[in-house]
Amino acid sequence: MSKSARLRLAGEEAAAPPQPGEYRVLLLATLITTTRELPVKLRSLSVTGATLEAFDLPRQGTDVILKRGAIEAFATVAWAEGRRCAIAFETPLTEDEVWAQIRQPRPAPLAPEPGDHRRPGFHVVTLSEDDLRAASEWARPAGRLARRD
């Protein structure tokens, strides 16, 4: 069975191949209408529009604002079907704005404090005569008579 057939069986629509300049992503964003804010998954992004996924999406022709990070783009819903819709931006994004969303900088790992990255060292402990005698008795094999000095 092909992958697209398995996806259709699982209830997913087969996605069209990306257009030139369109980037497949899986990012969280917010879609704002005049009556509500809706959390959405951003499935593709280009300078002219985006494909979104969510429950209860607005209808075709609805004016919306897509908000993600530093981007707040006015758009119109171009089509809506099931849990997916596409929006067309009123003013195209710049390539830098698109790349800023695709290539989010990751926080740098914290550098260890000097000396924190090493394992604890070995410490030499001097045992008393009583401790040495107890260790020696403990280490004798069972069944042998212990010889006392």
Quick structural overview:
With 149 residues, this protein is of the alpha+beta class.
Walk me through the structure.
There is one protein chain. The protein is an alpha+beta fold and 149 residues long. It has a domain at 19-102: Thrombin, subunit H (Beta Barrel), CATH 2.40.10. The chain is 17% helix and 32% strand. It is built from three helices and six strands, in the order H-E-E-E-E-E-E-H-H. Strands 1-2-3-6-5-4 form a six-stranded antiparallel barrel. It starts with a helix and ends in a 10-residue tail after the last helix. The relative contact order is 0.12.
Topology:
Elements (H helix, E strand, L loop, with lengths): L2 H7 L13 E10 L4 E9 L3 E5 L9 E6 L2 E11 L2 E6 L5 H8 L26 H11 L10
Antiparallel strand pairs: 1-2, 1-4, 2-3, 3-6, 4-5, 5-6
Order of helix and strand elements from N to C terminus: HEEEEEEHH
If you average the pLDDT, what whole number results? 80
Largest sheet: 6 strands, antiparallel, barrel
Name the helicity range.
10-25%
In CATH terms, the superfamily of one domain is predicted glycosyltransferase like domains
Strand line-up of the largest beta sheet: 1-2-3-6-5-4
End-to-end CA span: 82 Å
CATH architectural arrangement of one domain: Beta Barrel
List low-confidence stretches: 3-12
The gyration radius over C-alpha positions equals 32 Å
Treating each run of at least 4 consecutive H or I residues as one helix, how many helices?
A: 3
Instruction: Give the beta-strand count.
Output: 6
Q: How would you classify the helix and strand content by structural class? A: alpha+beta
Percent of residues in beta strands = 25-35%
Q: How does the overall form come out from the CA principal axes? A: rod-shaped
Q: The CATH topology of one domain is what? A: Thrombin, subunit H
CATH class of one domain: Mainly Beta
